């Protein structure tokens, strides 16, 4: 019954895509090309397994990423250094079972070694009070609101200060100890043709 959070594998992308597009209006839809782009570039792309089956995924990136999300740009225009949660999806049959909390604990453990803040947004359409409560219980606070161009969707923009970062940064900087739990994701190596022409994006 334990939850295992680990880096995504390439053969799981179809399952991740299906999970994303079955999540409902609280998550923007994805196509295969955009998901592939995340797989090739996102510094944090992990899945959760429970009882041997895929229970959800979380995609995140730092503030210097090349990411075209208007919500990401909103944060970057106002804050110089942060870790951004682009999306988190938990399979409907697994909601309320601790998968979301396992993801946020893991994402924070990763982010607080590298960034002073963690950022995300919650759509304010419909009744999203349980989602806001979930984030509030993790220490996120609203720092503004943003209406997404082309959709009219209003989002609460949330941030959390990562209090361990100043000590980690002062002690280690970017030279973190080589231990498994602190390791960054190894991005897949793209073919030379894709890297030189930009076709991998």
TrEMBL record:
SUPFAM superfamilies: Acyl-CoA N-acyltransferases (Nat). This is GNAT family N-acetyltransferase. GO terms for molecular function: acyltransferase activity, transferring groups other than amino-acyl groups. Keywords: Transferase. Coiled coil: none annotated. It comes from Novilysobacter ciconiae. Pfam families: Acetyltransf_1. InterPro entries: Acyl_CoA_acyltransferase, GNAT_dom, UCP028520. Residues 3-164 form the N-acetyltransferase domain.
